[in-house]
Design a protein that fits this description.
The chain is α+β, with helices and mostly antiparallel strands. It contains 5 helices and 12 strands.
């Protein structure tokens, strides 16, 4: 009886534990709840930047999905809830550089000329939200079925904007999950 009680106690204790993953001293929970949906940490990566031969770690990114998935195009096409967390670890990432990075990613992922032109207004709204980020600031992107919610958590202020356009949300998501660059270091759980 004592063995059974001890086993039940240990099982209950372990089931109540919150597990997490850590990369470059940033810890992200293995699962979170967003809009009533449980999302699982699919993977983490570190965004690197180089200037004049010096490479620095800019942020640790985490990709959360309703179910683990390793196929980038499937992730983008899915109607399920998704979240990207960018936790800044560099002491200062200039807003101007971050905006240029999003412009470049947008251009590389927006598709045909007509789509790019039609989505430029949304890019302007998105980039208006982008500010200079300092250590421990976060940019959180929540991908709903029909919109993108952008949240900036800075030391003194949290701001949020919603862009109600699935096509634009897919462009931003592609920039992250289908990146073909050496600037990301580490697995997001994507092939």
């Amino acid at each position: 009886m004592l063995k059974l009680s001890l086993s039940l106690f240990i099982g209950l204790f372990l089931s109540l534990q919150t597990f997490a993953a850590t990369r470059d001293k940033v810890t992200m929970e293995d699962s979170i709840t967003v809009a009533g949906k449980t999302l699982l940490l699919n993977g983490m990566t570190t965004r690197m930047a180089s200037k004049m031969g010096v490479t620095v770690k800019v942020y640790v990114g985490g990709l959360y999905l309703e179910a683990k998935e390793s196929n980038g195009p499937k992730i983008v096409a899915s109607d399920t809830m998704k979240r990207i967390v960018m936790h800044y670890i560099f002491f200062r990432a200039p807003g101007k550089k971050i905006k240029q990075g999003w412009k470049d990613s947008f251009k590389a992922n927006c598709g045909d000329e007509a789509t790019c032109k039609a989505q430029k207004a949304n890019l302007k709204i998105f980039n208006k939200q982008v500010k200079t980020m300092t250590k421990n600031d976060k940019m959180i992107l929540d991908f709903y079925k029909d919109k993108l919610e952008v949240t900036l958590e800075k030391k003194k202020k949290t701001t949020k904007v919603t862009i109600a356009d699935r096509k634009f949300a897919d462009i931003i998501l592609k920039a992250f999950v289908q990146a073909k660059t050496k600037a990301f270091r580490g697995p997001l759980g994507i092939d």
